[in-house]
Amino acid sequence: DVQLVESGGGSVQAGGSLTLSCAASGYIASINCMGWFRQAPGQEREGVTTIFRDGDTYYADSVKGRFTISRDNAKNVLVLEMSSLEPVDTAMYYCAAKFSGACALTGDYNFWGQGTQVTVS
């Protein structure tokens, strides 16, 4: 089993920056892919960005050039640096992990955190 705990959400003005963190624990040696997903009220969950164990990254078109995902394997922490934030980025952000399969932006991940709220005004 894997436990994921997000932190770092908050409120920020448009054009500002935020950094989210996701602390992973448990059977983390078997994780091959981690990612960030978000869900705004009344909308479906969408993939934001993912990172494979070898460091390959994938981004939704809407966040390319503004968001950066990274993975500190020594500390077992997944980080999402967000800049040039826009009101449309307002959502609950979730960290996710999986043991196998493609590192896609679809939601077929085995483990999920509880989420952290990001509000851009």
Summarize the structure in words.
By secondary structure, this protein is mainly β. The protein has no helices and eleven strands. It has strands spanning about 1-5, 10, 20-25, 35-40, 45-50, 55-60, 65-70, 75-80, 90-100, 110, 115-120. The strands form two sheets. Strands 2, 4, 5, 6, 9, 10 and 11 form a seven-stranded mixed sheet that branches. Strands 1-3-8-7 form a four-stranded antiparallel sheet, with no helix packed on it. It is globular. The termini are far apart. The model has no long low-confidence stretch (mean pLDDT about 95).
Give the termini distance in whole angstroms.
37 Å
Mean pLDDT: 95
Order of helices and strands: EEEEEEEEEEE
- Total strands: the figure is 11
How many separate helices?
A: 0
The rounded Rg comes to 13 Å
Quaternary structure? single chain
* Largest sheet, strands/sense/barrel: 7 strands, mixed
Structural class: mainly beta
Which range best describes the helical content: under 10%, 10-25%, 25-40%, 40-55%, 55-70% or over 70%? under 10%
Stretches where pLDDT is under 50 for at least 5 consecutive residues are none
β-sheet strand percentage? over 45%
Q: What global shape is seen?
A: globular
